[in-house]
Design goal:
GH3_C, Putative indole-3-acetic acid-amido synthetase GH3.9, 5 helices, single chain, five-stranded mixed β-sheet, alpha+beta, 139 residues, disordered N terminus, 34% helix
């Protein structure tokens, strides 16, 4: 599976709404995903050779695999799942180049240069979340 998936990032969902972590500002809410409850969202971009087989990828199965992996490796995640404080993850496959667009957006909206850029581990602003959410492939 690691040969197929190139990158993924997450946002934090909490108390029936998605919160994009921001720097001292009040968290913004994305209404399209708020009905699911607290959960992780993963954005996946497929390699060139895998894009032709897009229909073969079941995002529900991929999300279950990620959840099982997190459950087996992280005690806090186990506790949240066991007490039903966190719901199953959601996986969105994004259009080719979405992470390049994310990189360009971050560089354009910060003081970092292309040489200083490091891919985000989580989306911290409303703009970065919206960019990735709008670049998802709707099945």
């Amino acid at each position: 599976m690691s040969k197929i998936l190139t990158q993924f990032r997450l946002v934090k969902c909490w108390r029936s709404r998605t919160e994009v972590e921001s720097f001292g500002e009040k968290p913004k809410v994305c209404t399209e995903v708020k009905s699911k409850g607290s959960h992780y969202i993963f954005f996946l971009e497929l390699e060139e050779t895998s894009r032709d087989r897009l229909g073969e990828f079941n995002t529900t199965v991929i999300a279950e695999s990620i959840d099982n992996n997190l459950y087996s490796r992280h005690r806090f995640y186990q506790n949240f799942k066991d007490t039903k404080q966190i719901h199953p993850s959601t996986v969105y496959i994004v259009h080719p180049g979405a992470f390049y667009k994310l990189r360009d957006y971050v560089i354009a909206n910060s003081t970092a240069t292309a040489n200083q850029f490091k891919m985000l581990e989580k989306l911290r602003t409303e703009g970065t979340f919206e960019l990735m959410f709008k670049n998802r492939i709707i099945e």
